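Researcher: Let's do a round of design. I'm pasting the structure tokens now; please hold your answer until I've finished.
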């Protein structure tokens, strides 16, 4: 029992709560969804609240960052600069505001007791296992939050969960549908193929200068380069301040002496127990019976202590430790329930004590050994001590330097050199960047908005010192500007011609392929060079890419052979002959389970989409003209 408690002390609840704090810190302030940020002008109104341009810009940046992190090298910044992307982000903001207003109308409000309970259970806010107001405020400060903001975010998260969870929980898949889908997914088909290369229609491809000009005139947005800037900048952070701080040997020695407990292992005790379990809410008679049994065992062990392992295996009602002859292993203070811990840490080696009462029943305890507290020598932990002292001093020094840094940046608006000299920093320069694909830390919403403002571009003066992350200040100024421009026809004509040729070739090949497939279906065997037969599944493979798998498994196989075709990435067109359909004799339970999960999620998404559409439709939504235009 105690062993199980010890193993799960940091179990699912702690992980869930920790995830909650991560999610809420990741949000840029759900409270602003309800009230609307008035700083950037409204781009939309949803019922009684608005969506500001600043909100939209922040959310676009946040979603761009998430895509960049998820996709890595495959991330294409151009995607986030499109009108469609901006429209999707604005729609999501509108939907969230509508949901929150509906939740508020239905009085889905988080009680104060709920918020207090959540806060008490978040490990990041605990000191020695209990909630610490001081630690709570410090953690929030480090994450750029105030208690009021964070608690409001918890309330809004509760509201969103309350209004959306019933829809998710109401979804259930049909077992018949699951089985049918699983059989289709597991199905295989025997195929052979023949390729029509692009060269077979090359002589028919005709692209004229007029075609190129017409495409250019109709698709100018495709050839418009967005506005770009280049900047010089300064970064003042705690790390750079710490690197310049000298720490004396005396300071190291003093800190080590005052914090010796940090540099070693506290006393550990090794104990075994026999538990006679009884519920803490049991009546007095049941508890008395359990205590009597524990007392009798204790008396037996006082006479014959060598039987402890035997009695633990046969009598203990803590299954986790009983199989280990009652052993709980080594543990320090704070790892066991208090009555048990108090007893263990007051015993002598090999002493047997009991019965000791706890919420779980009555224990007979044997102390098996003591591992004294150990402290690492100063030489081993010197680097850690120096780092900690630098960090502590850097926090104080940084606060002082930050004021001076901000003032110098403001007072010398045309240059960063005075601020750089005072803080012993080097002025750095960026490459060319657009507002929507600025690299960190230029992608910080406030800094990006300041740099790309018409005033900054025109004056080339310093931005205000901006805290781009906790403990990091940054100031920048524009040193180069390229306005948005339409690339000339001469620059892009070759690209357009190649694109038109590829499109025309693909169209001609598809037409030729379709004619050939119709002839094959009528029994007219064309002179095609068929491949060897292959058995394929729905998963893309070396023989069949995703488009091919889709075509092969979409074709009607009631009459065989069946024929289909698809365009390939290399510009050719592949004709496929399906000769057999192979059904699986028995379904894989793992596949069925996966299908069930997928169907459930798809149904939940569809139901959620319908609910959100209904709630949003009830609200009066007005999107302002030019709401989704880029900067």
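Researcher: That's everything. Go ahead.
Model: Designed sequence:
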């Amino acid at each position: 029992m105690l062993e199980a408690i010890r193993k799960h002390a940091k179990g699912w609840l702690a992980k869930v709560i920790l995830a909650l704090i991560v999610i809420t810190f990741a949000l840029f302030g759900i409270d602003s969804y309800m009230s609307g940020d008035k700083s950037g002008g409204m781009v939309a109104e949803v019922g009684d609240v608005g969506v500001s341009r600043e909100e939209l810009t922040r959310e676009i940046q946040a979603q761009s960052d998430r895509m960049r992190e998820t996709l890595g090298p495959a991330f294409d910044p151009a995607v986030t600069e499109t009108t469609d992307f901006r429209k999707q982000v604005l729609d999501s903001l509108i939907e969230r505001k509508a949901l929150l207003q509906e939740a508020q109308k239905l009085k889905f409000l988080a009680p104060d007791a709920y918020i207090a309970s959540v806060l008490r259970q978040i490990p990041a806010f605990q000191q020695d296992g209990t909630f610490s107001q001081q630690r709570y405020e410090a953690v929030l400060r480090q994450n750029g939050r105030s208690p009021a903001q964070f608690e409001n975010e918890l309330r809004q998260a509760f509201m969103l969960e309350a209004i959306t969870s019933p829809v998710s929980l109401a979804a259930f898949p049909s077992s018949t549908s699951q089985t049918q889908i699983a059989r289709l997914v597991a199905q295989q088909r025997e195929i052979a193929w023949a390729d029509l290369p692009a060269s077979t229609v090359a002589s028919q491809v005709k692209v004229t200068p007029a075609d190129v000009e017409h495409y250019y005139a109709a698709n100018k947005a495709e050839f418009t380069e967005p506005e770009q800037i280049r900047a010089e900048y300064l970064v003042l952070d705690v790390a750079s301040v710490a690197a310049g701080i000298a720490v004396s040997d005396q300071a190291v020695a003093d800190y080590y002496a005052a914090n010796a407990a940090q540099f070693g292992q506290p006393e550990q005790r090794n104990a075994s127990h026999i538990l006679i379990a009884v519920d803490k809410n049991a009546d007095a008679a049941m508890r008395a019976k359990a205590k009597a049994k524990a007392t009798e065992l204790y008396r037996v062990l006082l006479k014959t202590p060598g039987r402890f392992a035997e009695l633990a295996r046969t009598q203990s009602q803590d299954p986790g430790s009983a199989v280990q002859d009652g052993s709980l292993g080594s543990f320090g203070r704070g790892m066991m329930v208090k009555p048990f811990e108090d007893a263990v840490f007051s015993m002598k080696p090999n002493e047997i004590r009991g019965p000791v009462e706890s919420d779980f029943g009555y224990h007979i305890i044997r102390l098996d050994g003591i591992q004294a507290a150990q402290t690492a020598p100063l030489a081993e932990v010197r680097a850690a001590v120096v780092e900690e002292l630098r960090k502590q001093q850097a926090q104080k020094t940084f606060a002082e330097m930050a004021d001076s840094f901000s003032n110098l940046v403001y007072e010398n608006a045309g240059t960063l050199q005075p601020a750089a000299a005072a803080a012993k920093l080097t002025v750095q320069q960026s490459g060319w960047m657009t507002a929507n694909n600025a690299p960190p830390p230029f992608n910080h919403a406030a800094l990006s908005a300041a740099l790309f403002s018409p005033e900054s571009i025109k004056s080339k003066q310093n931005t205000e010192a901006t805290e781009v992350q906790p403990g990091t200040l940054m100031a920048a100024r524009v040193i180069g500007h390229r306005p948005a421009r339409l690339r000339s026809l001469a620059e892009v004509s070759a690209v357009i011609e190649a694109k038109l040729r590829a499109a025309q070739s693909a169209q001609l090949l598809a037409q030729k392929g379709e004619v050939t497939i119709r002839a094959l279906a009528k029994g007219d065997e064309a002179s095609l060079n068929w491949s060897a037969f292959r058995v394929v599944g729905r998963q893309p493979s070396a023989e069949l890419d995703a488009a091919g798998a889709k075509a092969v498994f979409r074709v009607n196989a009631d009459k065989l052979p069946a024929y289909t075709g698809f365009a390939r990435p290399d510009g050719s067109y592949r004709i496929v002959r399906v000769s057999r359909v192979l059904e699986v004799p028995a379904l894989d339970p793992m596949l069925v389970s996966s299908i069930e999960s997928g169907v459930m999620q798809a149904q939940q998404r569809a139901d959620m989409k319908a609910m959100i559409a209904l709630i949003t439709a009830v609200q009066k939504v007005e999107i302002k003209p030019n709401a989704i235009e880029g900067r």
